[in-house]
Amino acid sequence: MTDAVAAQPAAAAQPGAEPSATAASGPLDVLVVGSVNLDTGFVLDRLPRDGETIESRDVRRSGGGKGANQALAAAQLGARTALLAAVGSDADTALADLVDAGVDLATLVRIPDALTGTAVLLVTPGDNAIVIAPGANALLSADHVRALDEPAAAAPRVVALQHEVPDAVVEAAVDRWAGRSLVVLNPSPWRPVTAELLARVDVLVVNQGELGELLGAPGTVELADRAAVEAALATAELSSRAVVVTLGSDGVLLRAGGETVHLPAFEVDAVDTVGAGDAFLGVLAAGLASASAAPDRGAASLDLAALTAAARRATAAAALAVTVRGARNPSLAPSAVDALLSDV
C-alpha cells in the first residue's frame, strides 16, 4: 500500500503556511530520514509501580519523533534541512514546528489510512521513560528512499538516520548516500547493526547502553563509567570512521583516527531530559554539514577537529534542551548555543 503513495509537501496541508526556506536554498545541508510522532507527556514525581495508578502533575501534547526532532534542531541552528518520513492525515500538530523553522517537507510521505506515530512520555525529575507506537513510521519503505527525486536531496552534505523506521529504510538510505554524503547513524531504539552497514557509516552515535549492546556486553554494567567506555572504544573494532558516545551528565566521548576526545557536559538546571539526545544529534549533523561546506573540504570529509567542533555545539544544545519541558526546545538558536559556549 505505501509504495503507491506519493510523497506530498506537508506544507500544503497547512493553509497560509509560508514556503519552506530550505526548498529555495539549493543543496541540502542535512537530510534526516526518520520518524514523526505525536507526543503525550505526563509529568510525574516518580514512575508507577506494577499495577499502580498515580496522578500526573501535568500533561503536555506536542510534536515529536526522533527524526522530526532532529530535523527541527538542525534547522534551528541554520542548516538547510529536509525530512523524509511517513505520516498519517493527523500529523499537522506534529509538523507545525518544522514548518515554522523552515524544514523542507516536500520529501514527506503522507499515508491517508494510517495514524501518525504516537509516543507516551513519563517524565520524572531528571529522568524519563518512553513508549512508542510506530504508526505510519513503520510504513516508510526502502522504495520511498529509492524513489525520492527532490533535486535538493540528491547529495545532502549530511544524512542522519535512526531506528524509529524499518531497517530496510536505513539500509536503503546508506546504499543511496554512502560515499556522497556524511552518513550519521544513531541506532536508537536499539536493534542490532551489521558490520557491513557500520563500515559504510561515517559517524556512529550511541549511548553507553547501545555501545554495550554493539560490543556484545548488554546493559551498562560493563560500561558503567567514562573510563570503561574509553577503554572499550580504544580496543573495539568498529568499522565506522568515527564514534560518538553520549554519557549523559558526564558529557561525550569522541573516537576518530585512533584518537579519543572527551567533552564535558555543561552544568544546567535540568527539568526534562527527553529532548537532549535528539537536540544533540540534530545540531551535530548541522555542525558537520557546516564543516563539510568549507571550500577546502569535500562533501564526505571528516576529521577529529571537525567532529569535536560539531560535538561541542551539540553538547551545548543538549544542555539547553534539558532546561525546558518536552522533546523540542522552541528557543534553540545559534545565539543561545553561542551564549552557553561563551560562559565556559
Automatic annotation (TrEMBL):
Residues 29-331 form the Carbohydrate kinase PfkB domain. Signal peptide: none annotated. Coiled coil: none annotated. ATP binds at residues 207, 246-251, 277-278. Residues 1-24 are annotated as: Disordered. The active site is at residue 278. Activated by a monovalent cation that binds near, but not in, the active site. The most likely occupant of the site in vivo is potassium. Ion binding induces a conformational change that may alter substrate affinity. GO terms for cellular component: cytosol. Belongs to the carbohydrate kinase PfkB family. Ribokinase subfamily. Catalyzes the phosphorylation of ribose at O-5 in a reaction requiring ATP and magnesium. The resulting D-ribose-5-phosphate can then be used either for sythesis of nucleotides, histidine, and tryptophan, or as a component of the pentose phosphate pathway. This is Ribokinase.
